[in-house]
Amino acid sequence: MSDDPPAQPPQPPAGRGTDETGPGTEAGPAAGTTDRRSPVPAAPATGGAATGGAEAAAGQRPPFGRMLIDAIVEGNSVVVTVLAIVAAIVVGGLLIAFTDPVVLSAWGRFFSDPGNAIAQAWDTAFSAYAAMFEGSIVNPHTVAAIFQQKSLGVAFSDGAISAVLNPISETLVNATPLIFAGLSVALAFRAGLFNIGAESQFIGGAIIATWLGFGVSLPPVIHVVVCVLGAFVGGAVLGWLVGFLKAATGAHEVIVTIMLNYVMADFLAWILGTSVMQRPGRSDLISPLIAGDAHLPQLLGSHLRVNASFLLALACAVGVWWLLNRSTIGFEFRSVGANPNAARSAGMSVPRTWIMVMLIAGGLAGLAASAVVQGTDFTLTFQSYGTYGIDAITVALLGRARPLGVVLAALLFGALHAGGILMQASTSTPLTITTVIQSLVVLFVAAPPLIRAMFRLHRATARGAGQNLARGWNG
Fold first, then answer.
1. CB count, 10 Å around CB of 470?
2. 38-88 residue pLDDT tens
3. For every residue of the chain, which 3-state class applies, written as one string?
4. Are 396 and 473 in contact (CB under 8 A)?
5. Mean pLDDT, rounded, for 467-472
6. What is the domain partition of the chain in residue ranges?
7. How far is CA 134 from CA 77, 101, 144, 157, 167, in A?
8. Confidence (pTM)
9. How far apart (Å, rounded) are the C-alpha atoms in residues 184 and 391?
10. Which of 12, 58, 220, 284 could form a disulfide bond with 293, CB atoms 3.0-4.6 angstroms apart?
11. What confidence score (pLDDT) does residue 445 get?
12. Is there a contact between 363 and 195 (Cβ–Cβ < 8 Å)?
């Protein structure tokens, strides 16, 4: 008679209990029994002392503190994005320092005076970033001056308050068109489309809004609303055309939008050079000023440029979030973006979805033109569209095609644009360094393995941290 123990039944795979009560249900070991996968007995499910193992057996989430530590150590998408920004700032600081002649001269004598070389590099980079912070967030010197005046019994003046709020105002002004344009590109991403025609849609919205602004006489409140709606319609028409051509003929949206960018840029140059939209008495490409009734109201007084378009941009971000996550149409958008064939098999009209997505995306890009024409410039020139179309792709990528991410990415880029002007004026650092920093941010965000290697992050575990990094832009 053999002394070998009886054969044990095969054990279930990790992650499943031994007792399944129905499809998709999982049960842990019974109370008071020992889990065969671990030498530690399971905690009895009695009384208030049932913690730790009982929570794990019940499938409860770990404590928030533990989740936060795991996210930092393992590097989920948010942590990787933040670290990508930090890495871009560090590399940008090195570029600022080692393109300065004084620093290069000091490093030429590194072995004789290493301390001075390192100090010169640090001071140059720190001074540039300090000036950027003062130009985009707040200038501590103006704040200190106000409190000094208050201590002397001098009341706050509008000019002093405006000086304090001017940096953040400029950041919001620069970020507002990027929010609109970024949402336009991000919405198309979620539906599986690559909208690189925000430039042409911006121009379409700008032309309509400008013409309504100076060529039509309406009551004050109605006038500004009509111009904003006109900007949306102008961009939406261009977006609809892209979606219609893709749905009807199969034309790729990338090719169509690239061609429309050239077409609308040339059309803008032509119309600004004719009597239709050229300012009387001028020979350059500039439109007449829009009426004061068509101006978007300013939020913080006449001395600051931030206006109601920023609130409208935030409202659009909330609307896009609701559309994608809480509406039937948004579900169709995401389904078509994930798998058009499966969506078609489920009874969804893929061509109709393409048209609808591009129509809304074009309208959002048109609203970016409203923020510029009605909010800050009050006229239209050939340079009005700037680089918003290209920057929108960068913002959507950095924001991972999510409305909140787009808003945060636009605010970051708005701060870089606003702070770069003071940085150049104060430290003679080229303004183009802000573009370099933006490019570095996108580069690092697009390469999560590089960030993991640089900061020695652990690989994601089975708990799922960091598993979404490799998703596509429409994921």
1. 10
2. 444 444 444 444 444 444 445 566 675 666 555 555 556 788 888 888 999
3. CCCCCCCCCCCCCCCCCCCCCCCCCCCCCCCCCCCCCCCCCCCCCCCCCCCCHHHHHCCCCCCHHHHHHHHHHHCCHHHHHHHHHHHHHHHHHHHHHCCCHHHHHHHHCCCCCHHHHHHHHHHHHHHHHHHHHHHHCCCHHHHHHHHHHHHCCCCCCHHHHHHHHHHHHHHHHHHHHHHHHHHHHHHHHHCCCCCCCHHHHHHHHHHHHHHHHHHCCCCHHHHHHHHHHHHHHHHHHHHHHHHHHHHHHCCCHHHHHHHHHHHHHHHHHHHHCCCCCCCCCCCCCECCCCCHHHCCCECCCCCCCCEHHHHHHHHHHHHHHHHHHHCHHHHHHHHHHHCHHHHHHCCCCHHHHHHHHHHHHHHHHHHHHHHHHHHHHCCCECCCCCCHHHHHHHHHHHCCCCHHHHHHHHHHHHHHHHHHHHHHHHHCCCCHHHHHHHHHHHHHHCCHHHHHHHHCCCCCCCCCCCCCCCCCCCC
4. yes
5. 39
6. 177-407
7. 29, 24, 13, 20, 7
8. 0.80
9. 12
10. 220
11. 82
12. no
> Which residue has 């609130």 as its token pair?
311
290: Cβ–Cβ under 8 A, 6 or more apart, which residues? 209, 210, 213, 214, 227, 373, 374, 378, 379
Spatial distance between the Cα atoms of 136 and 139, rounded to a whole number of angstroms: 8
- pLDDT per residue over 295-338, tens digit each? 999 998 888 999 999 999 999 999 999 999 999 999 999 999 99
CA distance 293 to 309: 15
Which two tokens mark 83?
């670290």
Instruction: Tell me what the mean pLDDT of segment 111-137 comes to.
Output: 93
Per-residue pLDDT of 438-462, as tens digits, reads 888 888 887 888 888 888 877 654 4
- The type of residue at 156 is F
Please give the structure tokens belonging to residue 66.
Answer: 């533990």
Structure token pair of residue 356: 């609808």
Percent of the chain scoring above 90 in pLDDT: 60
With tokens 């941290």, the residue in question is: 465
- What sign results for the dihedral spanned by CA atoms 291, 293, 296, 297? positive
Is residue 177 a contact partner of residue 372, using CB atoms and an 8 Å limit? Answer: yes
Q: How far is residue 407's CA from residue 26's CA, in Å, rounded to a whole number?
A: 40
Residue 181's CB is within 10 A of a number of other CB atoms, namely: 36
Rounded to the nearest 5°, which phi and psi values hold at 281?
A: 85, 0
Query: Is 364 in contact with 181 (CB distance < 8 Å)?
Result: yes
Asked if residue 351 lies in contact with residue 248, where contact means CB atoms within 8 angstroms, the answer is yes
